[in-house]
């Protein structure tokens, strides 16, 4: 059983109160919540799990109060509508005291987990507020637990069932809300000031102009105010003439409106198909109109001081190029949320690779610049994306009604996969009493504007509930009132996903959060959903899985992400199936990074720009089999970039391949430090190496690992096949206390290209170690919950030579100490005497049931050694992966002790009963909550 622990919202350590509540709700047989305040923002993130509990008929009691009339009636009604939940209201109007309890009680069998502290059932209290709570475990103090339950029962008996008092409470709530609104002192004119992002952009733009730069990019996530950022910046610069280019008239009008709030003394106008304001100070023009020769030639080439191009990722087209080739302003400012294009046009090069400022979705959430969102991944049981059957539409409507929205009425956008389906969906929604319109690129600007006004304007009698569209609202359109986003199409691009999500992320006074409903079918690209939500552009599968495991803790701010069981499984399946190491995928990412930095990127560039995980590039190298030494980055670049000419010899490539495949994963720094020092100084004393390890990396008493690293570098660690492959790549000679560079290696380093590639690999490896692996424990070379291959395990356990680890291996390290790593695939099935069942099972977060290979008894040599581990002074280590779809690496779970050996029988592959032995493996460290849940679920 776990101990009691402190529960708080801590962004530094990726901890949120909501995650602990959700985890306990998933495992409980019954739950009780007693809080002073309940809001819609607080219950919405929990709606998916509450729905699952309703389906499982898990009973719940929720007690709140009319204290201060803070709890929102609609939230209470929604909870009470769940068949498994009973809601009561404790009336303080009938007493002389308040009601301010905050407790969450979860019954599991005969035990209780109880959270007591400061968190009400509001979104900020569960995600970002400074809150103090204590999770009281079942074994901490049974007497206290019983007292809490008894006290709750007293309050519950005194409280009023919601159905008996909700009408009266709603009236009192509304009266109190009106008093509060009437008492507010509202300023007549709100002074607009730049936010933190905009201030940083203004500062950087000044620097760029001071360097006489002619062009620059503002890369800014949807909803972060890039139009206002440009206006604030230009206000300080005070240009006489500005041209603001957009691709749609509606966007031009929105931009002009924003600039009008900043510039009061300038004349502003539109150049479009409907309006021709040629002579204004600040001209907001569609690119279609300005690219006509008769329009741009009305002006001298240097007429405009500044030209701002909105959605500048479109600037590769002919119409934009006509304008840019003609005008010569003081400065071109390009603005976009998505600078990378699928057609490989180099926007970065067009703007001289000058990124003035960049803020992505994750940064914007950190800065609280966006409205929080509650995302729900919902299973779409449609046969295909074109399914417009009654069953599917009923399922969509059931979910949009259940998950709801923030505000007095729904103002929703539904993204469909094609125009035909959008029209059908609109018709079917309307037949069911909704007011919707489908909108596409075929509609005129006037029709679009009127449709949007019908959606957001509460004063119109013909207002809309939903606009159903395909892709026309992916960018540019500012509809800040949107409070529900519905996605009914396959996610084929993380960029488009973020664009469509962004339609609801603009803050608005009457919108506390936006609800995002994503209907997830059985699509191959579902892995792009967590990629987009996490903002992790490395595409590292382990990172994606970690986000899925711990998503609400890892998501910045008060936003939340939820998946139902089937949609979650579909995403994991998609992650496992995704083929991300093919050369075409690598080439696309390579081109994007090359465009961004304006040169051929190094592997280190890929890492620091988080463009793509290094492991994908290395895996792609394995497909380059024309030379035995072809598995190197330079060789791959030669294959995917016609501008790069490979000038390295086969021997030089062999050196680089050894480092690439064996060393640079950064899981131990020793080999990398040795290489770095001998390249720079020709020689390195072992005593000096020990000092470097201790002073720079806090690694002490490490002679054994130094010996191991030297065996790796001189190849004696490897079996004959690998030894013979790399024996020509000699790095070091070793004397008693000295490590000396070989003459051959030293001679090769005289060539700049080879030397630069060597340093790139060494710098990359050390950077990865410092970022990912340095926080090891028990003076071991392993870090809890990081992943290691079998070869990594053998190397980091300091074995004298590499050995295969199939299940477990007992082997002496260099110092003749016995070590035994267990490599466990958790979801592994075998045929037992009773039935087909899992061989491995976690009984709790510190105990794993494990079975040895077949044909084992207590008399088997390896089993006897394991059972006599204390006498043998043997050390055991557990490495585990969920299933083989995860690849060849295992999570390090820490030291273990094997207990309770039991002889049993198991059927082999020929269905013959064989003897075997099972153990309970006791972990030294309880498995972290999110990792534990990932394995057991």
Descriptive account of the structure:
- It holds the Pfam family Helicase_C.
- Residues 207-357 form the Helicase ATP-binding domain.
- The protein is α/β, with parallel strands linked by helices.
- It folds into five domains: 5-183, Endonuclease Chain A (Endonuclease, Chain A), CATH 3.30.870.10; 196-359, P-loop containing nucleotide triphosphate hydrolases (Rossmann fold), CATH 3.40.50; 369-564, P-loop containing nucleotide triphosphate hydrolases (Rossmann fold), CATH 3.40.50; 583-773, no CATH class; 787-936, PUA domain-like, CATH 2.30.280.
- The protein is built from 38 helices and 35 strands.
- The strands form five sheets. Strands 26, 27, 28, 29, 30, 31, 32, 33, 34 and 35 form a ten-stranded mixed β-sheet that branches. An eight-stranded mixed β-sheet has the order 1-7-6-5-2-3-4-8, sandwiched between helices. The chain has a seven-stranded parallel β-sheet with strand order 11-12-10-13-14-9-15.
- Helix 8 crosses helix 9, helix 21 packs antiparallel against helix 23 (565-577) and helix 28 (650-662) runs parallel beside helix 34 (752-773).
- The longest helix is centred in the N-terminal third of the chain and has 22 residues, at 162-183.
- The model is unreliable at 830-838 (pLDDT under 50).
């Amino acid at each position: 059983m776990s101990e009691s622990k402190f529960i708080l919202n801590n962004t530094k350590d990726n901890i949120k109160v909501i995650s602990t509540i959700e985890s306990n709700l998933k495992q409980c047989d019954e739950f009780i919540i007693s809080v002073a305040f309940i809001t819609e923002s607080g219950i919405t993130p929990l709606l998916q799990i509450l729905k699952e509990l309703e389906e499982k008929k898990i009973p719940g009691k929720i007690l709140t109060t009319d204290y201060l009339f803070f709890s929102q009636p609609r939230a209470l009604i929604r909870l009470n509508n769940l068949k498994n939940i009973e809601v009561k209201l404790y009336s303080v109007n009938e007493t002389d005291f308040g009601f301010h309890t905050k407790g969450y009680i979860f019954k599991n069998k005969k035990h209780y987990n109880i959270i007591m502290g400061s968190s009400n059932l509001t979104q900020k209290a569960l995600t970002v507020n400074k809150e103090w709570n204590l999770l009281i475990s079942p074994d901490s103090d049974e007497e206290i637990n019983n007292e809490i339950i008894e006290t709750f029962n007293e309050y519950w008996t005194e409280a009023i069932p919601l159905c008996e008092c909700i009408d009266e409470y709603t009236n009192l709530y509304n009266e109190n809300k009106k008093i509060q609104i009437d008492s507010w002192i509202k300023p007549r004119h709100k002074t607009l000031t730049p936010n933190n992002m905009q201030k940083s952009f203004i500062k950087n733009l000044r620097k760029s102009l001071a360097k006489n730069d002619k062009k620059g990019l503002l890369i800014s996530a949807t909803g972060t105010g890039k139009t206002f950022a440009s206006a604030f910046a230009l206000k300080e610069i005070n240009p006489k003439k500005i041209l603001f280019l957009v691709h749609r008239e509606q966007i031009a009008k929105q931009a002009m409106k924003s600039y009008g709030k900043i510039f009061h003394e300038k004349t502003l106008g539109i150049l479009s198909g409907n309006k021709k304001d040629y002579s204004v100070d600040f001209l907001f023009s569609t690119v279609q109109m300005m690219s006509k020769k008769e329009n741009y030639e009305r002006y001298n080439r240097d007429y405009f001081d500044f030209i701002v191009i909105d959605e500048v990722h479109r600037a590769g087209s002919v119409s934009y190029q006509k304008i840019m080739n003609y005008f010569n302003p003081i400065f071109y400012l390009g603005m976009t949320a998505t600078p990378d294009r699928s057609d490989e046009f180099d926007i970065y090069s067009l703007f001289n690779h000058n990124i003035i400022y960049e803020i992505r979705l994750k940064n914007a959430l950190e800065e609280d610049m966006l409205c929080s969102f509650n995302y729900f991944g919902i299973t779409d049981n449609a046969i295909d994306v074109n399914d417009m059957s009654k069953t599917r539409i009923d399922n969509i409507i059931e979910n949009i009604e259940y998950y709801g929205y923030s505000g007095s009425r729904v103002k929703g956008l539904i993204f469909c996969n094609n125009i035909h389906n959008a029209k059908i969906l609109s018709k079917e929604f309307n037949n069911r009493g909704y007011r919707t319109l489908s909108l596409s690129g075929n509609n005129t600007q006037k029709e679009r504007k009127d449709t949007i006004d019908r959606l957001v304007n509460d004063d119109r009698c013909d207002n809309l509930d939903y606009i159903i569209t395909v892709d026309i609202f992916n960018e540019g359109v500012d509809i800040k009132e949107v409070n529900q986003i519905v996605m009914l199409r396959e996610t084929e691009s993380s960029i488009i996903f973020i664009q469509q999500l962004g339609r609801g992320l603009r803050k608005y006074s009457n919108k506390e959060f936006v609800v995002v409903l994503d209907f997830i079918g059985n699509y191959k690209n579902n892995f792009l959903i967590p990629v987009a939500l996490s903002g992790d552009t490395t595409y590292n599968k382990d990172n994606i899985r970690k986000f899925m495991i711990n998503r609400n803790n890892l998501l910045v701010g008060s936003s939340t992400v939820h998946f139902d069981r089937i949609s979650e499984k579909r995403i994991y399946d998609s992650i496992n199936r995704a083929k991300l190491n093919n050369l075409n995928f690598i080439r696309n990412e390579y081109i994007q990074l090359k465009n961004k930095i304006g040169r051929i990127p190094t592997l280190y560039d890929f890492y620091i720009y988080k463009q793509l995980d290094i492991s994908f590039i290395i895996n792609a190298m394995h497909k380059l089999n024309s030379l035995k030494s072809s598995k190197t980055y330079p060789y791959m670049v030669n294959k995917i970039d016609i501008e790069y000419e490979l000038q390295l010899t086969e021997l030089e490539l062999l050196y680089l391949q050894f480092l690439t495949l064996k060393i640079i994963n950064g899981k131990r720094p020793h080999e990398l430090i040795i290489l770095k020092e001998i390249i720079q100084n020709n020689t390195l004393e072992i005593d000096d190496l020990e000092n470097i390890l201790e002073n720079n990396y806090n690694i002490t008493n490490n002679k054994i690992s130094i010996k191991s690293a030297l065996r790796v570098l001189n190849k004696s660690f490897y079996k004959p096949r690998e030894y013979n492959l790399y024996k020509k790549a000699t790095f070091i000679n070793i004397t008693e206390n000295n490590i000396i560079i070989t003459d051959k290696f030293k001679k090769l380093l005289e060539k700049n290209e080879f030397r630069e590639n060597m340093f790139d690999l060494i710098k990359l490896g050390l950077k990865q170690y410092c970022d990912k692996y340095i926080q090891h424990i028990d003076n071991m070379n392993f870090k809890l919950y990081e992943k290691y291959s079998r070869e990594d395990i053998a190397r980091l356990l300091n074995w004298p030579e590499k050995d295969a680890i199939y299940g477990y291996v007992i082997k002496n390290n260099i110092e003749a100490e016995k070590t035994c790593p267990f490599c466990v695939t958790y979801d592994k099935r075998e045929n037992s005497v009773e039935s087909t069942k899992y061989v491995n099972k976690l009984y709790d977060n510190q105990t794993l049931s494990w079975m040895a290979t077949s044909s084992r008894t207590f008399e088997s040599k390896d089993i006897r050694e394991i059972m006599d581990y204390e006498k043998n002074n043997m050390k055991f280590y557990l490495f585990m992966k969920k299933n083989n779809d995860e690849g060849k690496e295992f999570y390090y779970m820490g030291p273990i002790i094997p207990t309770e050996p039991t002889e049993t029988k198991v059927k082999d592959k020929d269905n013959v009963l064989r003897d075997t032995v099972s153990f309970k493996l006791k972990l030294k460290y309880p498995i972290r909550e999110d990792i534990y849940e990932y394995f057991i679920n």
